[in-house]
Design a protein that fits this description.
The chain is mainly α. The protein contains two helices and no strands. The protein is flat, with a radius of gyration of 23 Å.
Amino acid sequence: MSASQQRRAEWLGPGFWDRLDRLQCHHQRIRSEHDAARRGLEQLSAHDSEELRQAWRRYCEVIAELDRTAGEFEALRTCAE
């Protein structure tokens, strides 16, 4: 490590490096979970895939409706003020 890198490391402090270490561990764990989920999806049969697509479309429709109603609630709230 060069002198400038060492000063930078000292300047950031141990809290930064602890947080960075935790974030890297978390990122690695999430990446492993993602890879496992992807492998699981790749193993679905054609029938299972279609059911998954239909469930996902329905989920997206419900989320969109929730967003719309939340917007309507917010509009009502701001008009009432």
